[in-house]
Amino acid sequence: MPFTNEQLERYSRHIILKEIGAKGQKKLLNAKVLIIGAGGLGAPAALYLAAAGVGTIGIADADVVDLSNLQRQVIHSTNDIGKKKVDSAAETMRAINPDVTVNTYYQFVNSENISDLIKDYDFILDGTDNFPAKFLINDACVMAKKPLSHAGIIRFKGQLTTIIPGEGPCYRCIFKNPPPKDAVPTCKQAGVIGAMGGVIGSLQAMEAVKYITGVGELLSGYLLTYDALKMEFHKIKLPPRGKGCAVCSDHPTITTLIDYEQAVCDLH
Amino acid sequence: MKITVSGTVKEVADGLTVSQLIEQENVETPQYVTVSVNEEFIESGTFDTHILKEGDEVEFLYFMGGGTIMQSIIQDGSDE
User: Fold this and answer.
1) Is the ipTM of this complex over 0.85?
2) Residue A130 in contact with residue A37, Cβ under 8 Å?
3) Hey, what CATH topology would domain B2-62 get?
4) What is the pLDDT of residues B52-74, one digit of tens each?
5) Domain extents for chain B?
6) CB within 8 Å: A152 and B39
7) Closest residue to A154, CB basis, from B31, B39, B64
8) DSSP string computed for A9-26
9) Does A152 contact B at CB distance below 8 Å?
């Protein structure tokens, strides 16, 4: 289908990029990206992917918007407090760009629902805040061979990597297991500078756009870390895929999805 | 001898082990850190015996969630 005049204008700054062009923009419009977590990372990623014209964006989260979210979760507004995050996020994305079809999933991911959730998407973006979800998403994406952007943020630091199953290393190549629940005496919110989600979530969106359009080199095989206080980015080269990895090696020992227990956190 | 730690060249004692470097660098949550030397992960059980060599490139990789981190969990555990 040819572009409408409105689309030519809306995406003109993409289309004039020789690396993207009309062809790349078409790929974006035909692409399907799933964002898991509509929080600090998912919010900016969703905004940029919607603006970029990613044709189908899925967003999964089982939380409602809380006043304490608004310091960093820029897709939600004060008026959205109490709303489901997925609904608030969907409204904002549709307002930015009516070209985008938004699918909302008002649920936390678990071993029962994740395979079904990711199966229709081309690229998965992990914007979750806890280790059980991060391991689950990694394992599910490896097993279903879905490309994944993994990220984490805390205080003034952030990091991300792109996982291309069968090609580069996965999250479990770096970290074998979630930190043991029993080793955690108590739990407390550590805080995060609001713009950190903007920096790292936008980089995740960038990786999604690069993957879809086939432009440039992905952050596969590297962990990129960012220290805002030192204003330093550092790119750590990772060992090749699979060497002894329980999930992505050629002879995996983990072949079914695991629901790890989240440490019980009293955040107040 | 000179080694590179997280991208920075440092002078360290000959015969330094990974465990000693972890201590020297005040690595956060050493029990959960992943260490790579020359782009290979080191088994955590061998941190005590793995002796670093001149020119080694060492990286520390940390768990990072999205609001909680192991370090704060452990450090703040006592002041609830």
Assistant:
1) yes
2) no
3) Ubiquitin-like (UB roll) (3.10.20)
4) 999 999 999 998 876 444 444 44
5) 2-62
6) no
7) B64
8) HHTHHHHTSTTTHHHHHH
9) yes
